[in-house]
Specification:
Helices cover 46% and strands 17% of the residues. The protein has helices at 4-17, 24-35, 43-53, 59-71, 112-125, 144-147; strands at 41-42, 75-79, 85-89, 96-100, 106-109, 135-138. Strands 1-3-2 form a 3-stranded antiparallel β-sheet. Helix 1 (4-17) packs across helix 2 (24-35), helix 2 crosses helix 3 (43-53) and helix 3 crosses helix 4. The protein has 6 helices and 6 strands. The chain is globular, with a radius of gyration of 18 Å. It is α+β, with helices and mostly antiparallel strands and 148 residues long. It folds into 2 domains: 4-89, Arc Repressor Mutant, subunit A (Orthogonal Bundle), CATH 1.10.10; 96-147, Dna Ligase, domain 1, CATH 3.30.1490.
Amino acid sequence: MKNLREKITEISESLRRKGYRLTPQREAVIKILLENPNQHLAAEDIYAMVRKTHPEIGMATVYRTLELLSNEKIINQLNFEEGYSRYELESQAHHHHLVCLKCGKITEFNDNLLEKVEEEIAKEHTFAIVGHLLKFYGYCANCAPQER
């Protein structure tokens, strides 16, 4: 498994190939995402974490960085119907999300059955699927008993 520095170097090289530099501000945002891989952070969360080590970085810089990284497919911009976006690093492992309607907890899962369904749909409709997003909404183990 790659360490933090190797992952940052890999992202830096990807940006360079696309004509961008890895500025200290961009690196700080990427580092937060790398250090919190399962958090699905909002821009405000990232901003608060970045400011602890880089107090000179403004919210606009965080938003611009997230937009660039999203446009370049380095991160995924996720919408969980909360009125704001959350972000995660692009992953080679395809996964889906379970979203708790009460506490907002987001759990990732992978299910090969869904991949088979995608293949069948593509074949049936002669359609070249390049990706999909799947979110299940409900109540996590902590919140479900309260909803009954």
